[in-house]
Amino acid sequence: MSFDPTHLAALAAILRHGSFEAAASELNITPSAVSQRLKALENKMGTPMVIRDIPCRPTPAGQRLARHAQDLSLLEAQVAKDLGMGSAPARVRVALNADSLATWFIPALVGHEMLFEIEVDDQDHSAEWLHQGAVAAAVTARETPVRGCTCHALGSVRYIPTASPEFMARWFPDGITDKALARAPMLTFNAKDQLQVSWIKQATGHVLRPPTHTLPSTQAFIEAARAGLGWGMNPLILVEPHLMRRDLVPLIDGSFLDTPLYWQVARHVADPLRTLTAAVRRTARSTLVQPNER
Questions:
Q1: What are the residue ranges in the chain where pLDDT is below 50?
Q2: pTM for this one?
Q3: Which of 11, 74, 98, 120 could covalently link to 272 via disulfide, CB atoms 3.0 to 4.6 Å apart?
């Protein structure tokens, strides 16, 4: 089955911007023309592509077809480059965890003739975006390649359990005990975040479920720990200056949790993404903890 490129472009623009009006502005056509192109695509497929809401959202079929449109743009941009022809920047959708986005990943995006759409998810779940065909590549904690993908080891993010000195004095006056850990307020990024629980089990041998604040922001995690709201696992690369100033302290000296990360990229677009893959691997080598450094 072949698709009209203008129909695919309309679908992708609607989902990128969340409205027919914004899609029309990008494509330099009227909202009515956008609607007509989408309707023609839906008639061809025999199923809705878009949930008409505020903002517009994809149906499963729409999400898959939007990914197809993005893959085509990548492949076409690569052909144009190989032939020495100019072309519009291809769009690349990537899934990764918030801590990678906040620490080491951004420099890897610089210098490519691409426009990036970043989807943030927990490192233990970002591979699902690849499995569903929603992204072209992902930073994930999954070592096994997703079907149809290649997998590259990147190194590990080192997390340190940290809190303010005042918090430590209040909640751990007798040191880090199971009883104190079970009572002291803990910080969690979201319902998928298991870093704190994993560190507790590593440190104590037990599974404990302390009272928890949910803060879906890497920077807010650090600020909440500094303010004494709770303790949490923070990337060493971000909290090292705070540890040196002693406005944050480790719960246990020398204790940490390394989270290995992998770059997975869909094989059918691996060639047009080879320079991005090389940049991601190069940046990771210079920033993340490597096996010989553990």
A1: none
A2: 0.81
A3: 74
